[in-house]
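Job type: complex structure
Entries:
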Amino acid sequence: MDDTVALRCTGLVKRYEDLVAVAGIDLEVRRGECFGLLGPNGAGKTTTVEILEGLTVPDEGMVEVLGARWGEGRDRAIRARLGVQLQETQLPDKLTVSETVRLFRSFYRHGRSADEAIGAVGLGEKRNARVGKLSGGQKQRLALACALVGDPELLFLDEPTTGLDPQARLAVWELVEGFRAAGGTVLLTTHSMEEAARLADRVAIMDHGRLIALDTPAALIAALGADQIVELELAAEFADSMLSALPGVHSAMRTSAGWTLAVRDIGAALPALLEALERQGARLHGLRTHEATLEDVFVTLTGRGLRDE
Amino acid sequence: MSERPHPLFELTRARLLEFVREPEAVFWVFVFPVLLALALGIAFRSRPQDTVRVAVVEDASAAALASALDAGAGIEARVVSPADAAEALRKGRVDLAVEAEGDAAPGALPRRLVCRFDPSRAESRLARLAVETALRRARGLDDGTAVRDEAVDTPGSRYIDFLIPGLVGLNLMGSGMYGVGFVLVVARTRKLLKRFAATPMRRSHYLLSYGLSRLVFLIVEVAAVVGAGWVLFGVAVRGSWLDLALISVLGAGSFVGLGLLIAARTKTIEAASGWMNLIQLPMWLLSGTFFSYERFPESVWPAIRALPLTALNDALRAVTNDGASLASAGVEIVVLLAWGAVSFAIALRIFRWQ
């Protein structure tokens, strides 16, 4: 195994009674990168991450973390080099911030001091506050302090900002960026394309237990073949070919409210589009344009939005 | 770099802090048993001499009858109307109601008497006998035997002496099972077990910290109940304190094992509560905490004695009340060890961290 790979898995499969949560996943996280696993709820992100963390045993497949495999007698040695933040962990309400971090610190042979970790996540003033009294954002930062207190080489973050307000999200993002700047490797799951675009060097898009795309955010967006998206709300019926044949339009896709067009040249496409609509006598209820994002990549690949259930 | 505290110490410390910061838990474990001992000790205290209460239904001979009864030892007689007598009897305010039958001469004792009482009440049967004796005495009849009463009220043979070791046992059962089983299931539902499993923490340290924190609380729990018994009612520990401590630790250990077993896979707090009640309720009733299990048919005693709480209560009583040695509680110790060892072994095998 070469030194440049922090994490590698091949052919991961995990089945539960009536559902295949992970249906054959291969991926490789390089040292020093932030790798984003993006997908809607229920795509299998958490199961995948928990297999990589050695918390869930896969039915099939191989996992190699920092050059070692789970279940070969070196689990504790691997864990000593990982930092983990799980989705929905509720730390004990009755302990204080500093008691909690001290407890986690005691599990690691090497690491920073509890005070240092608390300071790093900006909870210094809340050191003696009970965990139960913290806000959602503060709790998430405490979870990060617990994940960072062992000075990990590889940090797993499972939906680290879900349910946080914008300011708290920003604080978490800055922490992750700080960890990266110091040479750390991050595996991040999220269903926020904004988060993936900001933090991740490479993104894997996951749906129904499979990876459906894997590249840098810029390359994924470029693969759309268009950098602008036009969303139309209208009731009239068109043939796909009519819309996608318009000048500057790369592709057209039916959505529940109307149509979504991937557009190469917005200056050419918009006038032609409006003229076409007028010619058909179609009544337009709404029109929005934005720069293409990872969300559009997901919609294009699956025909659904990231937040659709 | 900071000095790294030992994880087992930190885990135990966290358990202790979490517990003492939960006022309800502190009340149920430390205060409630003492209050229970106090209430039961007062309700069932040994009275110097039990008096029986007799209602005399009013008629011409009632006054003479009442004064004859009052003169008897341990009888408290009151003259009341027929309706009041019936009500007092029904509500247990009197043990017995007496009424003259047929014509009675005013001021003379009646020739015939009706006694009304519930024959299933021991006090009523006692009152019936006391009334008869008092009337024989009043008529100058005596069987000629001189009897002298001697009260036996030495510490060690009273109800409270029986009760205190039982409360210690009961408390060790409740706190052991809830303190471990319940808390572990809560930690699982909050995904804390999984979070700890993701660290290099030794899993044995985590489970051991529960045992150690129980050990710390056990000292306080046992001391609170035994101390209250001693200060309030003079219940003395006649055997060795070391034996008492050892038996308490063994008993606590077997209930920690059971708590661990319940928590090994249980995913919800409701399910855990159900299991706890299923296991604890029979022992509340059968294991001789509030009354001796010898009231149950003799054929079921062996089964009752095989229950951990029975074994614990019997061993605690042997040491506290009888001053027995540890060796004489050998069977009970084996029962406790067996429950502890088997439940621990199974629990550790099937324990789930998620």
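Summary: The longest strand of chain A covers residues 5-16. The CA atoms of residues 112 and 149 of chain A lie 6 Å apart.
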